[in-house]
Specification:
By secondary structure, the chain is mainly α. 54% of the residues lie in helices and 0% in strands. The chain has twelve helices and no strands. The model has no long low-confidence stretch (mean pLDDT 93).
């Protein structure tokens, strides 16, 4: 695959480098608050598939994942059978790992159970938003490198595991919280940081 460099017209977090795929994701998705259950479930599944791999690998396969997993519609994925598992294991467009595939299907069924007692998946996840006062006042690359987990991501992981979910460790849940806007980990000086802050102020937390 040919890699394209993004034009350097703004300051970005160092992790996205200058690759067009990463920069588009960084500028338009990462850190912006999300209240859509389908998107939350998709990201949770993809974070599980990323385990041991780079996010760029997953990002470049995302459309194939969406096609393979019924656009990550929870009820549709929950109905997948062993025949679907075999189909997915034969799909070269995605990560063909039986444990991760089965976990995504299993987690869809866990999501259905959770939704019997919670108003939405989003309302559940947003209950774990950290108090902004507890966040570092300055986000430098050095500070960010130390932030792989948090008390909130650990609590979220523990609660999900108690409910039977798989591939939901505290590091994976912190990555989810970063991506879905529960924390704003765009570094100081990053052009997108202020855009995310503005979006969060206008965002109505699902209840």
């Amino acid at each position: 695959m040919t890699t394209k460099s993004a034009p350097q017209t703004q300051v970005r977090c160092g992790w996205c480098g200058d690759l067009e795929d990463y920069c588009h994701y960084h500028d338009n998705e990462w850190g912006f608050p999300v209240d859509d259950d389908r998107r939350l479930f998709e990201k949770l599944c993809l974070e599980g598939f990323q385990s041991g791999l780079s996010w760029l690998t997953i990002l470049r396969k995302r459309e194939a994942f969406r096609k393979a997993f019924a656009n990550f519609e929870i009820d549709k994925v929950a109905r997948f059978t062993e025949r679907d598992v075999e189909r997915l294991l034969g799909d070269a467009g995605i990560v063909r790992h039986r444990g991760k595939i089965e976990a995504a299907i299993h987690n869809a069924r866990c999501a259905q159970e959770l939704l019997k007692t919670e108003p939405s998946l989003a309302a559940y996840f947003w209950k774990f938003e950290p108090d902004p006062k507890s966040q570092p006042k300055t986000l430098t690359p050095e500070v960010l490198r130390t932030m792989a987990i948090s008390p909130e991501s650990t609590a979220l992981s523990k609660d999900l595991k108690k409910r039977g979910w798989k591939f939901v460790g505290p590091t994976t849940m912190y990555a989810l919280m970063q991506a879905m806007g529960l924390v704003n980990d765009h570094m100081d000086g990053c052009t997108t940081r202020s855009l995310v802050q503005r979006a969060r102020k206008a965002f109505k937390v699902p209840r």
